[in-house]
Amino acid sequence: MENYRKLIMVVDDSISALLVAKDALSDAYKVMTVPSALKMLEMLERHTPDLILLDVVMPEMSGYEAIKILKKNPRTKKIPVIFLTAMNGVDNEIEGLNLGAVDYITKPFLPSVFRKRVAIQLSAESGIALFNHDDCLQDRVTARTKSILGFQSKFLKAIVELVEGGNGYRIESGRPQHCLGPLLSRMNSMDSYKEQTAMWDAEILLYSSQLHDVGKIITPNSILKKPGKLTVNEFDEMKSHVPLGVGFIKKLEEENEDDDDDIRFLQYAEIFAGFHHERWDGSGYPNGLMGENIPLLGRLMAIADVYEALTSERPYKKAFPHNDAVRIILEGRGKHFDPALVDVFEQVADRP
Length: 352
Ligand SMILES: [Fe+2]
Fold this sequence. Notes:
Helices cover 56% and strands 7% of the residues. By secondary structure, the chain is α/β, with parallel strands linked by helices. The chain has 2 domains: 2-132, Response regulator (Rossmann fold), CATH 3.40.50.2300; 135-348, Orthogonal Bundle (Hypothetical protein af1432). Strands 2-1-3-4-5 form a 5-stranded parallel beta sheet, with helices on both faces. Helix 7 crosses helix 14 (296-310), helix 13 packs across helix 14 (296-310) and helix 14 (296-310) packs across helix 15 (322-331). The longest helix is centred in the middle third of the chain and has 33 residues, at 135-167. The two termini are 31 Å apart. Residues 213, 241, 276-277 line the site of fe (ii) ion.
């Protein structure tokens, strides 16, 4: 489920190795860096990662010793472990795999290959989880989801009321999901996306999409409602709604880190808030990311957000008709927007 930020724990006594791994993975995953196996065991009492990348040669406790402890503990024995080490040789690899590791990556590695092997492993684990589910488990999941959505609805209502009352700006809270919903449902039936969408919880995802502009809570009305063009300084202040929104959501994540379900809602929201103004050609903000370096959910929200903005009335413009909004989004294919997602949008946009 990489697009709602699976958690990967990287354990290595080398700071540079931790930084290299974090750099390679943090666009798509939540990465927790841990400097020793002993520290990892301590962290595992509070966190349940989806994958552990474990160095073999470390002082105090080696990776081989550490995995034996993990595999004996019912709480940690199912967490997949990939050994990550400068050692090489078939014997080392076989020893690591015999101890229960699912893969063995030698350093130095190419970041693109490294990311792919991690993604394959996480995708394989999701497949196992899906095949192992039973009806009883599914019932429990459904009941739990209903209760989370109850919390989220109240939470969102409170946020929207705060925004409306606080500065008069209204978050069009129902709109992004009206565009995202058909996009997701179309992607679900496409070979190129169905593996990805099968790992998302569409209902929670659509609820969380309403938080993409939450950072605008503290953007002044003089900017939000300015009828004319923004000055450079005003535009900079407007752009700050992205880091402010991400910071707000991250704070909630810290306070809810023990609840896997609530954290998932917030992780989706963090991606929507953090990446919806990035552009496919790298001209967006806040980080100027290009192409597939922008998480898929961010690329999706870019389209939904612009469609919503175009078809809504704002103090500085009238609402565009549906067909004009569609034309403008098609013109942004490969520039503002992911070309493949624009093709999906075109397929679902023929019904206003
Ligand atoms: Fe925004």
